[in-house]
UniProtKB/TrEMBL annotation:
It comes from the Bacteria. This is Molybdopterin-dependent oxidoreductase. Keywords: Membrane, Transmembrane, Transmembrane helix. The chain crosses the membrane at residues 18-36.
């Protein structure tokens, strides 16, 4: 039984094994030539909206594209909306987020496809502090996140969302979150694989149950603990 309300975005499910296979084929194509690369293209083609798996240099990160590009918002007018089962629905600009308590941490970023960037500096508003600012209503069980381009969604249970190593991140790698990294604001869920750390964060909704996100509807796990941490990580200051 499905645990989300949204209709399927389109195309067949794409799980971790398929993504790993695409990455492996892409690397092999460089070595053995065009015939393998054509197989990669045939693998990608049936997935509507997936325009490529694109590794790129950038502090050890790889950037993957499933759309034709995300338009850059103006940080001066950009706002995140927080709504749903809250006592005080609000929208937050960059200056509003800066006025809330700030949390800093240094944690790894682990992609489910196998690569990892160690010791990344992160800063922003811990999600529990943002929820405190709006007040969580009775009966709330989960948080739903949406990207401002309307493509990506993600969810966390309320217990997961109240961890202090879950950030509404405004800084990473020693500066503002860049557009390629999902700025001006992105989600960072330290104890989970990177697909839970939604880029280009535009909306936060407090809801009555977990809704499967973009990648979960394509075969990924709803709970994405790295190494099955089960909540035992040290919390940041």
């Amino acid at each position: 039984m499905n645990d989300y309300d949204e209709p399927e975005v389109g195309g067949p499910p794409v799980g971790r094994r398929i993504v790993l296979g695409m990455l492996g084929l892409g690397a092999a194509g460089v070595v053995v030539g065009a015939s393998v690369q054509r197989q990669v293209n045939r693998t990608l083609a049936p997935v509507r909206g997936l325009e490529g798996v694109l590794p790129a240099a950038g502090g050890g990160f790889r950037f993957y594209s499933v759309t034709g590009g995300v338009k850059k918002p103006d940080p001066q007018t950009f706002r995140i909306t927080v709504k749903g089962m809250v006592r005080e629905p609000r929208s937050f600009g960059m200056a509003d987020l800066a006025k809330l308590p700030q949390t800093r941490m240094t944690r790894d970023f682990q992609c489910v496809t196998g690569w990892r960037v160690p010791d990344v500096g992160w800063a922003g508003v811990a999600l529990p502090d943002l929820l405190e600012a709006v007040g969580v209503g009775e009966g709330a069980k989960a948080i739903r996140f949406t990207s401002f381009d309307g493509v990506y969604t993600e969810s966390l249970t309320m217990d997961q969302a109240r961890r202090r190593d879950v950030l509404v991140a405004t800084e990473m790698l020693g500066g503002p979150v860049t557009h390629d990294h999902g700025g001006p604001v992105r989600l960072y869920v330290a104890p989970m694989y990177g697909y839970k750390s939604l880029k280009w964060l535009g909306g936060i909704e407090v809801v009555d149950r977990v809704r499967s996100g973009y990648w979960e509807r394509r075969g990924y796990d709803v709970d994405a603990w790295v190494g099955r941490s089960n909540g035992r990580d040290d919390e940041p200051t």
